[in-house]
# Entry
Amino acid sequence: MNKTFCLVTGISPDKIQKGLASAEGHILKDAPDLAVYMQFMRTSMLQERISDITEIFWKNPITMEETLNDIPSDILTRRGKVVIIQSFLKDHVFAIMRGIKSVSSRPQDIIFAMLTETAATWTLEEYLKHLKAEHSYMKTHPPEHDADMRRM
# Structure
């Protein structure tokens, strides 16, 4: 079974549920055996390495319904809207991104990141700071204005 994991902050549970439902049609058409799991970022995770967070989750994964029914009391707030996706299938990453954006009133404010080997070695706090800086830079330096990017 193909498994995709989303680590989320700043997006309400109902928006996540609607966004993933929107993405589900595309995902299931391509890979009917795909399962998407999600966990909300918690304040207590900030000093943990991303790889430790994902490893702990995969040892005892919980369903989307369980996640949405048991919102942690120390849910991370005031860090922006961020979705970190761990998946081996890029098409599924893009489907999840499109699905969540489709139900958001301000999709340009959501930071999406596909978990890389390098990022997995960082703490959640380090990675969130990096993503926020990168997102701010991209807002003021769109790739279509970069001559090197236009040649690609």
The chain has a mean pLDDT of 86.
